[in-house]
């Protein structure tokens, strides 16, 4: 378990951790659809819109309900994360057509994001030979591993890529460091709980040192 979440990392350590957590995975080109993990942040929607406009995806699934940990002010507005993402996607500045966007607005956490998105894709008969996950940069690696685990359990066969949102991580920010360390902790501890198929021993040695 990560024991130093309350401590400030050296900026170089924090920066290296963020680079690992936010690294794009695979090539999104030629994907059938994008799944956007919602939060009160327009940047994941902007990243998904870029994929649609450059022809990488033909459809977008926005996922997230009203109980997610990253809902922020959306809780005050009683607005689901996915509803917010869909509104950002279809606004005039991003101009993704409404008919392209599919909303899953019940998921309360990352596991339900994956499960309910897969259920929606199956129920609506959406082509899913290849999909691309779009998430807040710091959460990308964990959500990719989580989605892979859920997809295997549900026998949902697809090729998976992952793209981070644009995010200016500040390695001297206690809040940014805390979020990155929390994601590292999940990658390290969740496999033993049966929540991820990820092998923590594949983490770079310098990052494993942060998890001791």
Protein architecture, described:
The chain has a five-stranded parallel sheet with strand order 3-2-1-4-5, sandwiched between helices. It has eight helices and five strands. Helix content is 40%, strand content 12%. The protein has helices spanning 11-21, 43-53, 74-77, 81-90, 110-123, 140-153, 174-189, 205-208; strands at 33-37, 59-63, 101-104, 130-135, 159-164. Residues 1-5 have low confidence and may be disordered. The chain has 212 residues and is an alpha/beta fold.
The residue fraction in helices comes out at 25-40%
Strand arrangement within the widest β-sheet reads 3-2-1-4-5
**Taking all residues together, what is the mean pLDDT?**
91
Extract low-pLDDT stretches: 1-5
Task: Please tell me what the overall shape is.
Answer: globular
Would you count the extended β strands for me? Answer: 5
**What characterizes the major β-sheet?**
5 strands, parallel
Taken as a percent bin, the fraction of beta residues is 5-15%
Secondary-structure element sequence? HEHEHHEHEHEHH
Task: Output the structural class.
Answer: alpha/beta
Output the radius of gyration. 17 Å
Counting H and I runs of at least 4 residues, what is the number of helices?
Answer: 8
How far the N terminus sits from the C terminus, by CA atoms, comes to 6 Å
């Amino acid at each position: 378990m990560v024991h130093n979440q309350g401590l400030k990392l050296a900026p170089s350590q924090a920066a290296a951790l963020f680079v690992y957590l936010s690294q794009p995975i695979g090539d999104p080109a030629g994907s059938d659809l994008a799944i956007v993990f919602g939060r009160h942040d327009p940047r994941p929607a902007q990243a998904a819109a870029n994929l649609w406009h450059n022809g990488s995806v033909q459809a977008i699934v926005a996922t997230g309900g009203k109980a997610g940990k990253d809902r922020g002010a959306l809780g005050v507005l009683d607005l689901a994360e996915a509803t917010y993402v869909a509104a950002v996607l279809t606004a005039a500045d991003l101009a993704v057509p409404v008919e392209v966007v599919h909303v899953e607005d019940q998921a309360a956490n990352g596991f339900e994001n994956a499960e309910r998105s897969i259920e929606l894709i199956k129920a609506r008969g959406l082509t899913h030979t290849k999909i691309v996950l779009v998430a807040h940069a710091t959460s990308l690696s964990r959500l990719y591993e989580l989605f892979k685990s859920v997809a295997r359990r549900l026998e949902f066969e697809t090729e998976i890529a992952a793209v981070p949102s644009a995010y200016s991580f500040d390695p001297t920010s206690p809040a940014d460091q805390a979020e990155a360390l929390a994601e590292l902790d999940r990658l390290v501890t969740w496999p033993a709980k049966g929540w991820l198929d990820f092998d923590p021993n594949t983490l770079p040695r310098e990052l494993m040192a942060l998890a001791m």
